[in-house]
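Incident review: delayed structure delivery

Summary: a single-chain prediction request sat in the queue longer than the usual turnaround. Root cause was a stuck worker, restarted by the on-call engineer. No data loss occurred. The affected request and its eventual output are reproduced below so the record is complete for anyone auditing the incident later.

Affected input:
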Amino acid sequence: MTQNESEIMKMTISAIALALAALAGSSLAASPAASAPAADKQPTAQQTKMTTCNKVAGEKKLEGEPRKAFMKDCLSADPAAAATSPACEKSADDKKLSGAARSSHIKKCVADSK
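Output delivered after worker restart:
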């Protein structure tokens, strides 16, 4: 091995050692103790609404465009509108509406009920 190759090998080993030290330091910073205060944070109103809407969409087994339409309506609805929504959704179910027609019907129904 030449002197030049030996220097390259030393520099490579030093770079690897530094990278490992940096990784070890970052993994210590990301330990559970460091992230514990973040776990105490309460979800925002929008996050709670998203969780609720997602759960309802799952219970209704909605997929594709009907799910998108439902989620859009659910997330944009105010709490008072959400209370009247089941009757409007039943009406849409009775009429066998889907997609944009269903969304439009529910939106109009909710607006009329106010």
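Verification: Residues 3-29 form the longest helix (27 residues).
Action items: add queue-age alerting; document worker restart procedure.
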